[in-house]
Specification:
By secondary structure, the chain is mainly α. Helix content is 48%, strand content 0%. α3 runs parallel beside α5. The relative contact order is 0.10. The model has no long low-confidence stretch (mean pLDDT 93).
Length: 124
Amino acid sequence: LAAVTQDGLALAHAADHLRADREVVRAAVQSDALSFAYAAKNLKADLPLAREAVRRNSFVVMHVADALKSDRDLILLAAERNDFALEHASKELQSDRAFLLEAASRNLHILAGVSAEHLADKEF
């Protein structure tokens, strides 16, 4: 725990049982959010932990479990500061007009990741 508290990326070299320990991973994320990439698979699906990691570094969204990539709030949180967050959203969210408008209202640069079909829609 001390190692990841000082350097979150030390999680990359931790034993599997430590990568699966929620408190160890949480401490690593608090030190360096990118350490979330080294968390055990089950913890990458832990919404509160993923939300904390994405809040600290929006690029962590690429490492969350696929099941969380359809969580509107999590992807919107990432989209606020990550112009490429939509690339990591589920196909459902990528095609959801209301969601895309909400994301664009938070970060206009996100429009770079919107499909040509949506951009051609005059009502969009």
